[in-house]
Structures are given as C-alpha cells and as structure tokens.
TrEMBL record:
Gly residues: bias regions: 9-45, 52-76
Region (Disordered): 1-100, 129-148
Full protein name: Uncharacterized protein
PANTHER family listed in its UniProt record: EUKARYOTIC TRANSLATION INITIATION FACTOR 2C
Species this chain originates from: Sarocladium strictum
Matching Pfam families: ArgoL1, ArgoL2, ArgoN, PAZ, Piwi
Signal peptide: none
Amino acid sequence: MADHHTGRGARGGGGRGSGGRGRGGRGGGGGEGGGGRGGRGGGGTFSDRGGRGGGGTFSDRGGGFRGGRGRGGNRGGRSISPGRDKAYELPGPVRVPANDPVIDKLEDQIVQKQGYSIADLASKMGKVKIGGSSGRTPGSSSRNDDHFPIRPAYGTNGLAVLLWANYFAVKVKPDHLFKYTMKFYQREGDRAYKPVEPKGRKLRIITQLVIAELKTKYPDLAFATEFKSQLVTTKPLEDAELLVTLADGPSPDVFKVEFNGPSEARVGNMNEWLSSMAQGPDDVFYPRFPETIDALNVIFGFGSRSKDTITAVGSARVFPFDRMIPGENIASLQCDGRPLIAARGLFHSARLGTGRLLLNANVTHGVFKCSGPALDIFRNLNFRPLAKNDMRSSKGKHFNMVAKLFSKTRVSVEMKLENGKVINRNKAIHSLARASEILRGFKGDKPPRFHPDFEYPGPKQVKFWLDDNKGGGDYITVFDYYKTKYGREVDDWPLLNLGRIDRPTFFPVEIVTIMPGQSVKAKLTGSETTDMLSFACHSPYFNATQISTTGRATLGLDDGSLEKFGITTEKNLLTVRGRILNVPSIQYFDPRQQKTPKQIRPRQGSWNMMQCKIVRSGKPISRWGFANIHNRFQNVVDMDTVQAFAKFMQGLGIQISQTPVNLMADNNGRARSTDRANFEGMIDDFFARAKKAGFQFLLFIIDERDTQGLYAHIKMMGDCCYGIQTSIVIGSKFRPVDRNTGEVKTSNQAGYFANVALKWNLKAGGANHSLSTELSLIKEGKTMLVGYDVTHPTNLSAGQDSDIPSIAGLVASIDKQLGQWPGVAWEQPSRQEMLSGRLVEVFKSRLDLWFKNNKSYPENIVIFRDGVSEGQFSQVLDTELPSIREACRAKCGDKAQQPKISIIISVKRHQTRFYPTDMNQKTDSGNILPGTVVDRGVTQARYWDFFLTAHNALQGTARPAHYTVLLDEIFRARYGTNAANELEKMTHELCYLYGRATKAVSICPPAYYADIICERARAHRPELFEASDVASVDDRGATGQSRDVHPDLKDTMYYI
C-alpha cells in the first residue's frame, strides 16, 4: 500500500508472514514535517513496495511515507525496477485476452437472481428492527438479511477498463479430498511409545519418510503435506498408523505416526455452490468451505515444499534458493554489519471466486541469513574475537547483536573420521563460543579453559581436554588440534559452539558452511530497511512477469504434480473488468477574496494548495514556544525562522500568534540548544513550567540522527502528563540551508512548513480542506463515521509477545465537515483482535461528542473496521456489534431512535494486485490509475465487497484496499440497487479527505486515523514497545497500565 501524506517518518513494518497482521518497529525520529526517513522495519513480508513518501503540499513531493503494517516504513527513493513504461501482455497474437464472458454472464445472473428490486428493498428494510438485536447468537445458523448482506448489484459508475489480476483460474475434478492430522510418537525401549513434537529438520525428515512409505503402500493414491501435521489424500487410508525409522545419528530412532481423521473436503459441493451461490441455512457463515480451501492450499504448497532448494516461510510463502543471483533474486543487507540478505519468493493461496476456484499468486520478499562458507561471511563482516574490555562499548553491543543471528543456524561441517575419510555432516550452531556463558553452564570435569582477556575467543584462546585413548590426555588449543588432525592452520576468528552450553564442541569457521534459506525474524535497522525496500520495489510489469514465469515454476504448476489430484491451472493470469471512478474536486478558500471557495481538481490522485487557505482554522494558538534539542550548534533554529513559520501559517488562514517563546534562549535571548541527555533529565520540569505558563503548543527541533526514544518521551509527556500539543521537526528541514551559499532554501522550507502547519491546524480543531460536492449520505449532518483498529506486538525477542499488550484505537467524525476525528486508544490482552468490554464506554464517548457538536445523536453510523482477517468476520458481528448496540441503547434510548448501523471491513494486508493492460491507462510508475475499483472477476457474487485503488503509487506496485460489507442497515434501504455505486463513491471520495495530505490515500481516513492513534498509544508506552532485543519483561514494567490521554487533549486530534 502506498500512502503519500505529510507526516512523521514511517513506522517500520513487521508482518506476521504473508498477508498477515502485525506491526514492526516504529520509524526512527523522522520528525513531523514529513521529510523524515522511514525507520526500522521488521523481518516480515515485503510483498511489494507501494511508493515513496509523498503528500507534498506545494509540490509533487514532500511528506514522509507512512508504511502500512506488515511492511517496513521507508523513505523516498528512485525505483530501479524495469517496466515502468510497459504494460504486461502475453506473447503471440492475443496479447490481452478478454475477461471470461461465461463468468461475466454467471455473475450477472446470480446478482439478478438474488438482488431485490428497489420496492422490495424498501419493504424489507422497513421491517428491520434497528437496535432490537444486539447481534447474531454465536454459532447460530439463523439468517439475517443485514449480516453478510447480499450484493445489491455490481457497480456501474466510472470509465470501464480491462485489468490483469494476479490470479490463475483453477479446475479441481475429484468430488472429495481427505485430510488427516498426523501425531507423532517415539519409541522408548523395546515397545513403549511416548508422544513427541518433532520440529525443524527432524520433522521434515520424518514427514518425508511417511510420504515415501505411503506411496509404497498406496501407489494409486496422491499425497500432500505441509510438512507439519496435515496430510491430504485422494482416498481414505486403510491404516490408522505406520512406523518409520530415522537413522540420523549413532542409533536409529523409531517413530509411530498416527493418522487422525479423515475430515472430508467436499470439493464437489464447493464447485456446485460456486456455480450458483444459492442461499441456504449456512449462509451466515464466512468464509465458505474453509476445510476444502485448507486442503487445496496444502496441495498447492506441497510441490515446492518438497524441494530442498526451496524454503517455506509460514503457511503460504516459498523462496527458491537453487540459484542465488545478487540483484536478481537476492540482495545483501549487510550495510550495518549483520549477516543478512533479502530474497524474492512467491505467495500462494487458493481463493473462491464466482463460478471458479482461483489461485492467488504474488511476489513476496523476506529476510534470511547469509549462506556459504562461514569464513567468507566472517571475513566480510570483519568479525574478529572480542575482548572482555570491549563488551560494554558500541563494538561489544554490535557483536552481541550479530552473534544472536548465528544461534540455531543450520550448517554443514567438514569432519575427518578415524579412517582418515573426510565427510560433511549437518549440524546446527548453538551459539558463538562465549567464555562466561560456557563456564557458568558447563557440567562435568575438565571444563574448557579460556584466555582471561577474551569473552568471544578465537582458536588460540581456547583449550579443551583431549583424551589420548590410554586413560590420559591433556589440554590442547583448538588451533593446535586442527593443525595436528587436519594439517590446517585456522585463522583468528570467533569459534562456533555446535554442541551445548553444558557440553560445548568448538569448530573454527574454516570448516563450516552455512546452509541457504534460513529465514530471520528480526528488527531491521533504517539502512537495512532502505536496502530491503529498494530490492522489493518493482513495477507491475516486473511482478506480473515474475508471477507468470518464475512463480509458476516455483509452485510446480506446470510439472504435472497437481494432475495427480485432478487439479489443473490456467496458463495465463486472469483479466478482469474494472472502472475508474470520477475524481472529486477539492475545496479551499481563495486568500485574495475573503470567504470565496476555491476549487482544485486533483491529477493522478494529488494536488497542491498554492494560493489557497484552509477551510476552517482551529482554536487560536496564542501561547506557544519552541526548543532546540540537539548538540550541533550549526543546526540551531533561531527566532526569525520560527516567526517565519508562524507567518506562513497565518497566510494559510490558521489563527496563531507571531510571538512564540524561545524556551531554550541564552542570557541574551538568542536561541541555543541542549543535547538529548540534558533534556531527558529536565523534561518533566520543562513541561511542568510550560503548563503553568499556559502554553498550548510546543515545537521541538531535533537532530535528524536522533532516536525514536526522544520522540516517544516528548509525546508521552505532552499527550498524557501535561495536556500540551507537541510537534517535533527536523532542524535541517525546518531551516534547510544551501551548503554552498549558506542561504535558506525557501522552496524546500515552504513545503516542510506546510506539512507541519496542516497538522497544527488539525490538532487545534480545524479542518484543512473539504470536498466541493458533499457526500450524499453525509450532507444532512445525521451520519457519524467511525474507524477502529487493533494492532499487535511483533518482531520482539522470543517469549516477549505474550507480555506486550495489543493496542485498540477508535476515532469518529464529529460533524458533516469530516475535518475532525478525535479518538481513543487503549490496551487489551496481547494478540486479542476482538475489542474488549471497554468498547461500550469508548463508543458512548464518541456519541456524546457527536451530540455536543450537533445537539442530537446520529441517525446513521457507518463503521470502517480495519484489519480483521476473513476468519474473524463473524466474530465482529458476534462480539463487537453487541457492544456497539449497547452503547447506542444507553445513549439514544427508545428503539425507534436507535441509529442504523453499517459495518465495512477495510483490509490492506492482502495479496490481490491489479496491473494495467493498456499503455494509455496507467500512471507514470506503471500502475493502474487512481480511483480504479474492481468488484467482479475475483470476488464472490454472493457477498458485497470490492477492491479500490484510490491512491497513486509513485513506486512499486499499488496495493488496493479491500472493503467487505458485514452489516448494512443504511445503504440498501436508502439507495436500493444503486447502493453499490453509492458506497464505492463515498469510500473513494473519503480517501481525498485525509487531513494532513494533499493526496488521496490508499485506505479511507476513518480506518487510517484509527491506525495512527494506535501508533501514538505505542509511543505512550516506550518501556514496552521500544524495548531492545535484550530487555526482559521485568525491565519494561507490567502490562495493563495504559496511559490515558490528558483531559485537555482527549477530544482533539492530538495523535496526528
């Protein structure tokens, strides 16, 4: 997803595997003017990079990129991807095939059959008991016309276009597949078996033996597994268990494997439903046929997972490592001295479509350990033994960080047998040999001896006891041992411990080779993230070509393996019908004519506001100050610059005093700076004095190289402790100076000033721009829009996730202008997606705020719920909707006065992409045009959903937002069969109302603001979310102690 807006540098992104939820480390100190570099990203999915930071207010560039979750944040940069000037096409005479007319006809027939006439709709919706039912009883199969509402019609608005989609059509012949769960038991002694849970390489080998044994016993059957616990077959097995022997050590291990099941995957029933989508008693359950889809995904992944040269990450991502070509399918991430690479792979998932099964395939990227001779890797890193005196230095901290990455790494070791034969054996690195750790943990007599000056020693600094096979022996250095036994003088590199802490075995790097394809879950540094995103950023043409060629080969779609299951896939990507919606006009005021509206027509999703005033100023900012916090005097921002900023805001129509207070002035009143350490020591007193003096806003100028910790500390003090609006900017951007002339770059400064100014006006309660034509549902002033989201901890050290709370955030509009979106954030149990009981009180507070501004409660509430997976859709209706109903009943009283509610799921973390087929209907980056909507071809006619690409991805491949209607008491009753057009139009035009941007954003503002308020809540608990890899839970404090926002700010957009 490429969002371009003014704002602080990106939050880094983690990802819980492909298409999953999750959030990585936060961006590092990018400031609030939008020029900040995106910060640390997680080691999760980098499917494709949506585009560089944008949102420039007075030009086509500007604000910082705010990455979507699941990916790293990034800074702007030039794409090196080929194909920006191309549209993907097939070789041969038919370069772009038409979309399937049979599917088109079936879609139309299904919608016409299930659709209502306008009269029918009015009649049905008139009988709906608004507020009478809290929700659907969990597990109930009762039909409710509002829950998972039937698609009223396909949209018709906009210019029709033909697009490629990253899907292949699939045909499955058998009526049934059978799925078993495998359980493993290991023999102890002669007969007894105990339950075991083998992992990693051992589990893979055991599963391979199971498949080989089954193929021998059942030569006519086809088998597939994900190499964990599932087994899919074409017919039921006659045996409930079998034995396999693993000869992977000095004595063979015997395992009994039980096949529990089978559960039946009803492929025939699925195919029948896809061709009709007839309603039935189970129509309230979503998604449909999960057991069958799960079995098919196991089959689609089995071919690639069976190959030793392909690494599987999670349930749906595979990475080939048979040929590793730097710059083509791998890239180095060693810019900060860590042994990491980026690799390109493929995501795959079976999906239901109308009239057919589909295979969704997308390019994905992941982070892996470097592979090859360990000597080469250590040499490239210049990774030498570490003295104890260096442990507390920056060198020691970096060494520890790198050393962790070698733990549990699979390696091949050159070993010499007693008969002199040299062989290679597979082992795993326990850790780099660390003296203090081994001495504490060693069990037995004759412990190894270490040179007293070294913490991470080399081969000459370690001695171990070597038996002489005659009852005696002596201590020998690792260096002398390998010189004697192998005739090899090993160099001075840290030693690898391939044993255990209590029984270490030391190996020099010269005889160790690190195996390829070992994924890493780690926080990336800012530089690593930048390199990762540069590698991952590719045009739609490139990605479509990769999927159609390398991707098919990786999945084995053409090697005949799927035919054993009666499965065939079409050779070419699908083409689907899309529409480009009309662009709304943006309204400001003309600075030359008081209160005269000025309309601007966006181009490719963006516009500039030169010669414009904002539509409404917030509360006057009469008392405000600034402070320089960095240790480089040449970057001190003086009073003249800050006053120029105030004058600039006044020119935009923002009411602000032009006499700020320099809170860090010297005795002569000149601006001075304090470094971070000094400020951290005085921050509480600083804010206390500012609050007592009545300051409304505080502007902090920091160094670009500052860390996120300072940002979080300032925000926590301002937002929670003292109730003062704060803004953090980068000194070199707030006052950009030409290095040659020493003059201020006024054009650069104007863009940065504008980015900050828009945020200040929102914090003060103002509105920056509006739509020239009001949205039909909104203009009456009776509809409140709500967005809420839950974010989860990711990319933390092992065992930390359960101790870190999830963050819930909810925002809501307060009037029909849609300029202000105050919100609330709170903590709830870790990894819990459904909102807890506090939702009732939070929702009441939003209703009260609406009443305060409108003197009545809303008649309609449209909710955009961000980020839940398809498997959780029903839970939203069963768990969250009753809380919302309860809040409405408490405030609105009589059932007749209960607001009508529609709930729409908005999802960014999915793998659907669309590519242009026409050179004349693409953006400069090769993407589909902003405003493109797709509601057929890759959707299910039964359900009401659509994909919308509202934004312009300046780089990479645009990620559309996917919207699914879970509950509708508003649109069909109001608009009848035109409801689809109205919902698509409203959602699209909302994307132009993101207050701190002069661009359309990729997800509608209610969902977007909810995401941002969650991020701010993370900043309020830096002891939890900014913890280092080595911090313990005790170091960070207990969970469940959320910091509430100060009463003076709670009804403002403090989080923006």
